[in-house]
Amino acid sequence: MRTSWADAVDNAASGSDGYGVGSGDSHRPAYVPPHLRNRPPTPDPMVGQAATSNNGPPPINDRLGYGGQTSGSRWAAPRSDYGRPGYSAGGGGRGGRGGGWGNRGGSWGGRELEANPFGNDDVDDPAEIASEQESSGINFDAYEDIPVETSGVNVPPPVNSFAEIDLGEALNLNIRRCKYVRPTPVQRYTIPISLAGRDLMACAQTGSGKTAAFCFPIISGIMRGQSVQRPHGFRTVFPLALILSPTRELSCQIHVEARKFAYQTGVKVVVVYGGAPINQQLRELERGVDILVATPGRLVDLLERAKVSLQMIRYLALDEADRMLDMGFEPQIRKIVEQTDMPPPGGRQTMLFSATFPREIQRLASDFLSNYIFLTVGRVGSSTDLIVQRVEFVQETDKRSHLMDLLHAQMDNGSGKQPLTLVFVETKKGADSLEYWLCGNGFPATTIHGDRTQPERELALRSFKSGKTPILVATDVAARGLDIPHVSHVVNFDLPNDIDDYVHRIGRTGRAGKTGLATAFFNENNMSLAKPLADLMQEANQEVPQWLTRYASRAAYGGGGKNRRSGGRFGGRDFRKESSFSRGGNAGGMDYYGGGGGYSGYGGGGYGGGAGAPSAWD
Ligand SMILES: Nc1ncnc2c1ncn2[C@@H]1O[C@H](COP(=O)(O)OP(=O)(O)OP(=O)(O)O)[C@@H](O)[C@H]1O
């Protein structure tokens, strides 16, 4: 009997992500190039049921055993997948399209052979595909006046619509299936830059569509260049693109998204990450991979076993790039990028994305880039105006009762149902303890943190997304990238030490043009955050309490310089523009679009390393 987390997901027949790791079919030949993938898929054997983890007694959360809720989220797996044995990560792709640029998409007759990653079976029905009136609900007006700044030589101009870009017919169809009517600002600017083959460092607000911004050009580029011959290694695979992200959940999410974008393009996307059985991931890889989505630890493992070669990499994308290059991850990333057979900068195209990009990290990142363009969209390093930020002075001992007041109040405000609330705490123990206390007081809660097993983490996320346990207590492992629909409130029960972590945490709400609320509990333990927090709130037009302004001015005079942004404002400036930059290159001619005023770079001291407890990351 299999006991992987993916099996647990399989058991939850109506799970939301359609996620898991393929089973069986391990006798497939090694890599099958996209143009040869016309064989009908062999029916996969049904696999048995696997136990989910039933750890603890808290009576009203997922720890009792997963109830198989349907999330109703946009990530929902297609019904056609439910009967499958552990919906394989792109496994259906081997039945994918023939090779040529022109023969993908609508006209191909065997489309049903590839698992449909969209939530509807009838995706070719034009009525199902978004019209100008029916978009995904993104509020583009929120982005009308967004300041954008680019620097670098010969910056390609932005586009206003997907129609202006030649992404290829099959990808365009998938964009419509995703109900993306217009590109978001970061997509308007970055897609032409990437399609022009340029390296890129891009900062854009949380929830602004960065995933598609790096996926579209990669998929499009691979579709165009499929004739490339890859070496034949004994059980070694040679992906063409590598997307690295710091957490397992984020890698899975990127994989789910990328599979939608790559549906019926012939481009095969596979994910590998820690905490899940490596053999299943190896089997997926052996079925063929064009785009590899990975967490660094598991990838290093696969590289050391010579299961993956990066020799053919043409595209490298680092999501949450500043986190990937901070103190916890940098050695692993350098190992992957600089000490393997991956082509050097210039021999590959490199794209770095994040909502925050401290100067010190930019400096490190520039080692990976060649003649790159730096782009900032929005008030970089700040939050979006769509998030209402509140900060309340709460002593440690009062935090629980204060949280309970908030939870009661938000329930009374609406339909009596608890809205999805994400509560960030500092430690894993603290997360468990708060979860237990919440459950004991009648609030269905669950946790996600680095001490939980991967099946437990995945289960918790599902339970939260589905609303079964509408309160998720989390450490920073959930701070970055996760796109959970309908999170209406983020509570910083314990504030992070680093303002960038705060930015990412509150960015779990107010996504894709929607509004959200973020509440922070502040007390004397958070003094070093007073100034950057007050600055950030002011910049985002939020009401800054007078007591916080007072603490902030005290911190400005009396030190508190631990935080890397203290003394400065929002850090969206290309570090190459600074006079201290002397690495033999510069930003060259500067091209500006839009406003872009008001950035004054990071004034504070060195990079503080953030909260990144290594065990919380993958
Ligand atoms: N052009 C578009 N039209 C409509 N919705 C979009 C578009 N692009 C992306 N989205 C949606 O916006 C949401 C946020 O996108 P995404 O997760 O890529 O944000 P992000 O910028 O990577 O956020 P973070 O900084 O938190 O990682 C997703 O639900 C995505 O499907």
From TrEMBL:
<keyword id="KW-0347">Helicase</keyword>
<dbReference type="InterPro" id="IPR011545">
    <property type="entry name" value="DEAD/DEAH_box_helicase_dom"/>
</dbReference>
<feature type="region of interest" description="Disordered">
    <location>
        <begin position="1"/>
        <end position="117"/>
    </location>
</feature>
<dbReference type="InterPro" id="IPR027417">
    <property type="entry name" value="P-loop_NTPase"/>
</dbReference>
<feature type="short sequence motif" description="Q motif">
    <location>
        <begin position="160"/>
        <end position="188"/>
    </location>
</feature>
<dbReference type="GO" id="GO:0005524">
    <property type="term" value="F:ATP binding"/>
</dbReference>
<feature type="compositionally biased region" description="Gly residues">
    <location>
        <begin position="88"/>
        <end position="109"/>
    </location>
</feature>
<dbReference type="InterPro" id="IPR001650">
    <property type="entry name" value="Helicase_C-like"/>
</dbReference>
<keyword id="KW-0067">ATP-binding</keyword>
<dbReference type="InterPro" id="IPR044763">
    <property type="entry name" value="Ded1/Dbp1_DEADc"/>
</dbReference>
<feature type="domain" description="Helicase C-terminal">
    <location>
        <begin position="386"/>
        <end position="552"/>
    </location>
</feature>
<keyword id="KW-0378">Hydrolase</keyword>
<protein>
    <recommendedName>
        <fullName>RNA helicase</fullName>
        <ecNumber>3.6.4.13</ecNumber>
    </recommendedName>
</protein>
<feature type="domain" description="Helicase ATP-binding">
    <location>
        <begin position="191"/>
        <end position="375"/>
    </location>
</feature>
<dbReference type="InterPro" id="IPR014014">
    <property type="entry name" value="RNA_helicase_DEAD_Q_motif"/>
</dbReference>
<dbReference type="Pfam" id="PF00271">
    <property type="entry name" value="Helicase_C"/>
</dbReference>
<comment type="similarity">
    <text>Belongs to the DEAD box helicase family. DDX3/DED1 subfamily.</text>
</comment>
<dbReference type="Pfam" id="PF00270">
    <property type="entry name" value="DEAD"/>
</dbReference>
<dbReference type="GO" id="GO:0016787">
    <property type="term" value="F:hydrolase activity"/>
</dbReference>
<dbReference type="GO" id="GO:0003723">
    <property type="term" value="F:RNA binding"/>
</dbReference>
<dbReference type="InterPro" id="IPR014001">
    <property type="entry name" value="Helicase_ATP-bd"/>
</dbReference>
<dbReference type="GO" id="GO:0003724">
    <property type="term" value="F:RNA helicase activity"/>
</dbReference>
<keyword id="KW-0694">RNA-binding</keyword>
<keyword id="KW-0547">Nucleotide-binding</keyword>
<feature type="domain" description="DEAD-box RNA helicase Q">
    <location>
        <begin position="160"/>
        <end position="188"/>
    </location>
</feature>
<feature type="region of interest" description="Disordered">
    <location>
        <begin position="558"/>
        <end position="578"/>
    </location>
</feature>
